[in-house]
Amino acid sequence: MTASSEKKAMSLRFPDPDQYEAIATAAKAAGVSLQEYVLSAAYERATAIEVKFLEAARSAYEYTREAFAELGDDQPDEEARVREAAARAELENDEPNRAGERAA
Among the four residues 39, 62, 85, 97, which has the most C-beta atoms within 10 Å? Predict the structure, then answer.
């Protein structure tokens, strides 16, 4: 069994009564049980790196998207793509003729 599929009870001891009181007060203020509060805080801390990475990726995406937008709309329209494909096909079909000219 993997850790994610196992359900185990967890017993936490708070050696510092002030620490316990602070966490219990925060859980009560949040309207959740002490266990739920501690688990959500632990999960949030465990996934903080992933969240930070995703935020950085989104920021980089926005930056590059804006940078390319400043360059203008360089996307060729459908007609230009068709003309390019036809020109490429013409060159590829003409290639054997050029090879024969070089051999002669």
Answer: 39
